[in-house]
Amino acid sequence: MRKHILVLDYGIGNIKSIMAAFKKFENNVLLGSANKDFANAKALIIPGVGAFRHGMEKLKVNKLDTRIREFAQENRPIMGICLGMQMLFSSSQEFGESAGLNLIEGDVIRLSPKQKHKLPNISWSEISSSYISEPLLEGINQSDKFYHIHSFYAEPKSREHILAKTKFFDKSYCSIAKKGNIFGCQFHPEKSGEQGLKIVKNFVNISNTHE
């Protein structure tokens, strides 16, 4: 049986646009959350919009948090998008302290402390990276812009897990994280036009090397 890319269905996220983006480059894309869906997946996409605590509660309802951790332990590629990226981290300060999946060590914190700048950050913003030869960034230029909409960001404990950064006024924050085969995009590649689709295509290519 040919393995699929699994887009996790847990009741949160812009599923239609993510499914459409990945189906441009991979015919076998499945929306699901059952054990068999995980078992036959070569890669996992964790979408998400909204609050961190609510997202984690939705994952825990059907023990999806456990399945995600097991998937990561098997070294299969994972991409978290927006809230999906944030939940990859250890904890969040949003609406009080909440524990995350802890697949990447670090915390999710408010982008603009004491509301110095108006939130959410809704922008088309550039990413900058010292790892432009990284497979996920193939074909991406430092001047390319991606669609961001968020009030919190993930701060990895280790700098080596920061693949790219983006500026919000005078704050430079992690907009792409990576640890092994685990990736997170704070922006929405599926809503970022041609450049965003390059990120999607690159992740599909990474997934195919692990099929």
Task: Provide a quick synopsis of the model.
The protein has one domain (4-208): Class I glutamine amidotransferase (GATase) domain (Rossmann fold, 3-Layer(aba) Sandwich). It is 26% helix and 33% strand. The protein has helices at 15-23, 35-39, 52-61, 64-73, 83-86, 193-208; strands spanning 4-8, 29-32, 41-46, 78-81, 89-92, 98-99, 104-110, 121-126, 145-150, 152-156, 162-168, 171-179, 182-185.
Question: Radius of gyration, rounded?
Answer: 16 Å
Helical segment tally?
Answer: 6
Shape assignment: globular
Strand order of the largest sheet: 2-1-3-4-13-12-11
CATH architecture name:
3-Layer(aba) Sandwich
**Percentage of residues in strands:** 25-35%
User: Structural class, from secondary structure content?
Assistant: alpha/beta
In N-to-C order, the SSE pattern is EHEHEHHEHEEEEEEEEEH
Oligomer: single chain
Considering DSSP H and I runs of 4 or more, what fraction of the residues is helical? 25-40%
The total strand number stands at 13
Distance between the termini: 11 Å
Give average pLDDT, whole number: 92
Q: The CATH topology is what?
A: Rossmann fold
Number of domains: 1
Q: What's the name of the CATH homologous superfamily?
A: Class I glutamine amidotransferase (GATase) domain
Low-pLDDT residue spans: none
CATH class: Alpha Beta
Largest sheet: 7 strands, mixed
